[in-house]
Amino acid sequence: MSIRSDRRALLAAACGAVLAAPSIVTAARAQARRIVVRDLGIGTSFVDAYARPFEAATGIKVVPVTAQHEPAGLIRQMVETRAFTWDMAIVSRATADQLASEGGGHIEPLGIEAAAGFQAMPGMFKAPYYAANDVVATVLAYRTDKVRTPPRSWADFWDVRGRPGARAMRRFPFDTIEQALLADGVEPAKLYPCDFDRAFKSLDRIRRDVAVWWTSGAQSSQLLQSGEVDYCPTWNGRAQVAINGGAPVALMWEQALWQTEGWVILKGTPNAALCREFIAFALDPARQAVFAAATGYGPSLAKAIDLLPEATAKAMPTHPDNSRSAQLIDVAFWAKNRDRAADLFNRWVVG
Predict the structure, then answer these.
(1) Domain final residue pick, 258, 279, 298
(2) Of 197, 223, 258, at which residue does a domain stop?
(3) Are the CB atoms for 349 and 213 separated by under 8 Å?
(4) Range of the domain at 317
(5) DSSP for 298-312, written as a single string
């Protein structure tokens, strides 16, 4: 199934919404009319959905840049040195929570509580310093030309005897720890706080059968596309890249692990007002629908699903058919345990 269909109609709808969009922050007009935004780097999705319509509506130039997947260190350095390569960024909720909690914090309050999109967003997808743009599901992707019986749980993925085939896993504790615990029989409601000892014992049972430990979403897409592996836990949008490329790949939506990615403003940037105007503008169902159709990631605003073609909507993590057994990642747990978990995992994976 491809999610490329009807993108022109979605783009037209989003651009039409530009004409009715008011200027949220009039004081921003006096500032240098340019912001630099760290985006996800997925094709032209960010420009099509947000940057180009925003520039057309406001005249404010938006410069997109890409960076490492979890750019907390880069953001800290910019804020602490006041050398701002970016003004704002789209990051995972775990990264946002960590940046907000450290010392005096490294990100600004958004200050957009009156914006319609922020008000419409579910509470679990927002915070005073964060507004979710998309919902990402970590799912088990598998090659249908090699896997005859679809897996239905992480325990199935761990069943290397009953389900032979080349496997890949992410070389990072996020998601991987949860997968190990679910495979070992931990109930979803009791995942947190994660039992690291139990997780690594579970991982011990499968490590010899992991052919590739991937380190980027693009790599996981390529592993599936090429057929180098038969099973690969990855983000649903990265698996969708392989599907759109014609690879015989399907997704296991059971026990999907949800996380969000959203907008933050770097603390101290001189362009904070412009960033607030941009975020309020981006929190719009029509614009999120354009982004979702291009990336495969679910919109954080429920009305955006209704604007998608049916086939595209059914490929979204937030579609009702795909969200029944989804587990929302506990970002508060990971904000507190991120560094410890990374150290434990890195020592385990090379041990």
Answers:
(1) 258
(2) 258
(3) yes
(4) 34-135+260-328
(5) EESSHHHHHTS-HHH
When mean pLDDT is compared across 15-24, 251-260, 276-285, the lowest value belongs to: 15-24
pLDDT digits (tens, 9 = 90+) for 92-148: 998 899 899 887 799 999 999 999 999 999 999 999 999 999 999 999 999 999 999
The CATH number assigned to the domain holding 226 equals 3.40.190.10
Amino acid at 215: T
How buried is residue 212: exposed, middle or buried, by Cβ count under 10 Å (0-12/13-18/19+)?
middle
* Residue, of 217 and 140, whose pLDDT is higher: 140
Supply 160's token pair. Answer: 């290397």
Q: Where are the alpha helices (DSSP H) in the chain?
A: 7-20, 45-46, 52-58, 72-81, 93-101, 116-120, 154-158, 173-183, 196-204, 217-226, 236-244, 272-282, 285-295, 302-306, 310-313, 331-350
What is the identity of the amino acid at 156?
D
**Contact present, 110 and 265 (Cβ < 8 Å):** yes
- Whether the full predicted model's pTM is greater than 0.85, yes or no, is no
Residue 288, C-beta contacts closer than 8 angstroms, at least 6 positions apart: 49, 133, 134, 282, 299, 300, 301, 304
As separate numbers, helices (DSSP H) first and strands (DSSP E) second, the chain gives 16, 11
Distance CA(314)–CA(189), nearest Å, equals 26
For residues 212 and 322, membership in a common domain is answered with no
Q: Same domain, yes or no, for 253 and 267? A: no
Single-letter amino acid, residue 161? R
Which three-class secondary structure state does DSSP give residue 14?
helix
Cis peptide before 317 (omega within 30 of 0): no
Same domain? 209 vs 197: yes
Closest CA to 323 of 255, 246, 267: 255
Structure tokens given for 129:
């310093």
Q: What is the DSSP string of 313-338?
A: HTTSTTSTTTSTT-EE--HHHHHHHH
In a domain, 346, yes or no: no
